[in-house]
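Narrative of activities, Objective 1.

The group set out to show that a structural description can be obtained from nothing but a protein's sequence at a throughput compatible with the screening campaign. Below is one input-output pair from the validation batch, recorded exactly as produced.
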Amino acid sequence: MSTAARSTLAAFALLALSTAAAAFETEAQAAYVIDHNTRQVMLSHNDQLPLPPASMSKLMTLNMVFEALEDGRLEMETLLPVSTHAMSFGGSTMFLTTRDRVSVEDLIRGVVVLSGNDASVVLAEALSPDGTEAGFADMMTQRALQLGMENSTFRNASGWPAPGHVMSMRDLGILAERLITEFPQYYPYFAETEFLFDGRAPDNRFNRNPILTMGIGADGLKTGHTQEAGYGLVGSAMQGDRRVTFVITGIDTPGKRAREAERIVNWAFRQFAEREVLAAGTILAEAEVFMGAAESVGLTPAENVTMLIPAIQGNVIEAEVVYEGPIVAPIKEGAVLGTLVVRLEGFDERRIPLVAVAPVERGGIVARLGTAVRLILHDLLGGVVPAAVPG
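Output recorded for this entry:
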């Protein structure tokens, strides 16, 4: 007798707010904006379209390096050789030569601050299963899929234009959030505004990320530009306790890119506020229990639930409790039994796990006989269920 039970909380009386998100008109070909704390997607424009990422794909190279540092395959002090292939790249560079032996830390800073194509290839060849950049690119593609990046295919480590080298802006957003969350010990590199390697090319020492010096709380992450891709940026900024991460691409000029990035940051922080809408322990529904000492069990979120609430009021938040019932006893306190589905205009649907507010032991013999009788009568009476037999 398993059924999908749904209980609609029409007014979402937990907060009883009316809300509407003002649509943001972006100049970017594709864009993705996410609130770090609540995981709410604030803007998605062509965000799942695979596009040339240019140097923004170096973030995936850095992810692979950070993973290698964490599992011991690399150390910051490890010196790596520079191959002829690595030295051959033009564009953004550290000006490495085959005579160099460069530390992993300097190479990381070379990738982050200088967007060094040569540094990217040195790191790639060191970690590649076959010692080649192509082998590393295949490894990145496989790892990206494991991380939920479904629209990313890599042909190289640097983002150098190549047929089939693509990422979606949503994938870049997933990647940026991972770098911030999983590798906080390395994230400060993204806020560095200059890096002079070995005294070489002092005019080339500055980070190209325009938002780092705007005074808007920005601390990362990576710019990108090729003729095919246009100007792009993976950015993140923190103001107060909130962090916003965004990705834009396909903009005509570096000046427009900087202005669009600042517009997005200001919009994200000014048009939304983070609010606690539901406290842990609040019972949202009673789920029917099968063969238990109690007829039902309360469903509640395990943790306080916070949401972004648009500043301009409009439509009502819709919320619905969904669970598969009846739920067979015994039930442990804290067991995940259902989902709170929250719908708010302008945002992706949000799904919050609901847990048992208390344990329910398996019922005694009387309760179990009563349940059996109810099931028989349920069938005989065509779905009319009599009252439970006390146990």
